[in-house]
Amino acid sequence: MLPLGKLRNDVLREIIFPNLGVTDKKVIYGPKEGFDSAVLEYNEESYLIIATDPTLGVPEETFGFFTYHFASSDVSVFGARPRWLVVDLVLPPGTSKEFLKKAMEDLNGECKKYRTAIIGGHTGVYPTLKEPVSTTTAMGLVRKGELKLPLAKPGDRIVVTSKVALEFAVSSAYFRTNELKKVLTPREIAELRSLYRFETVIPEALIARPFVRGMHDATEGGLTALNEIADNSGVGFRVYAERLELSPPVRKVLDFYGLEPWSVSSTGTLIAITPPENVNSLITELYKNGIKAFELGEFTAEKGRVLVEREEERPFPEFKGDPYAELYSKG
């Protein structure tokens, strides 16, 4: 049986990647581990960036927001502003007009904020569904010289925005409220719930473009995405645990479930692959725009993946299953 969550890379290589249709010279970068968007030739000056993502299993009040941001974030980390969306919206029997109206108004609000047009899609109510599901395909243009790929060179620094494990904590505040009352106050739970709007990398990715070599959104599997970056780049990395910045409520949630922050879902956390001479400028520019970031480590010529914690070294965790999927599969 396939495990919960995103398909593991070995399954992608065995089943998905051998069945991708014909070769097309317009496809510059197609499906690849660690690449969440495709890159297509658009014209002499630009590439077309395309990404697709589903939205399901999220709190109702967040549905329209994530219908925009899950796929659009993937476009932004390749250096493009999300310009066009195709949205499939399929609903279970009993869905109210009020839910649909709220979801569409929220989606429309995000589109207007980032100057994005919805150009097509599909809508319907189907008896086989148990919850609302949307699938969004986002597209944007980037000049060829400004394309950002999730690839690193030795010496590049790992700069991370201060939202590690936020997705896991926010979802826990929605779906495991009674459990978390043991360690969080009602006010802390309410504040965590309100932070779902920070589960996007679009603002920081658009700011970071001039300063970075590449970017990645630490979604399912969190910071273990560093392993995919290293695999694709032929490099290693060192990460320093004492540099990690977590908000106190997020730390409380992780401690309550006995989890480390490295592999939990962290949608909205930008991993910026940054030449060393640009680190201070990047962090300063993000800070000017109200976004906290920190230097977590560096990529190395040596192929090891090292986590330094309390002056001791151990292998950096690999993606073996997201605690988010494991936790919520238990009800």
Question: How would you characterize the overall build of this protein?
Answer:
The chain is α+β, with helices and mostly antiparallel strands. The protein folds into 2 domains: 22-146, 2-Layer Sandwich (60s Ribosomal Protein L30, Chain: A), CATH 3.30.1330; 157-328, Phosphoribosyl-aminoimidazole Synthetase, Chain A, domain 2, CATH 3.90.650. Helix content is 32%, strand content 24%. The protein has a 7-stranded mixed beta sheet, sandwiched between helices. Strand 4 (84-91), helix 3 (97-114) and strand 5 form a beta-alpha-beta unit. The longest helix has 18 residues, at 97-114.
Task: Give the helix/strand layout.
Layout (H helix, E strand, L loop, with lengths): L8 H8 L10 E3 L8 E4 L4 E10 L7 H14 L7 E8 L5 H18 L2 E9 L7 E11 L13 E5 L4 H10 L1 H4 L5 H9 L7 H7 L5 E4 L7 H9 L2 E5 L7 H10 L12 E5 L4 H10 L4 E8 L4 E5 L2 E4 L7 H6 L3
Parallel strand pairs: 4-5, 9-12
Antiparallel strand pairs: 1-2, 2-3, 3-6, 4-6, 7-10, 7-11, 8-10, 9-11, 12-13
Helix pairs in contact: 2-3, 4-6, 4-9
Number of helices: 11
Main beta-sheet strand count, sense and barrel state: 7 strands, mixed
Radius of gyration: 20 Å
* Shape type: globular
For the secondary structure, the number of strands is 13
Order of helices and strands: HEEEHEHEEEHHHHEHEHEHEEEH
- The whole-number mean of residue pLDDT values reads 95
Corresponding CATH architecture of the largest domain: Alpha-Beta Complex
* CATH homologous superfamily designation of the largest domain: PurM-like C-terminal domain
What is the CATH C-level name of the largest domain?
Alpha Beta
Q: What strand order characterises the main sheet?
A: 8-10-7-11-9-12-13
Distance between the termini: 19 Å
CATH topology of the largest domain: Phosphoribosyl-aminoimidazole Synthetase, Chain A, domain 2
The amount of helix comes to 25-40%
Estimate the strand proportion. Answer: 15-25%
Low-pLDDT residue intervals, each spanning 5 or more residues: none
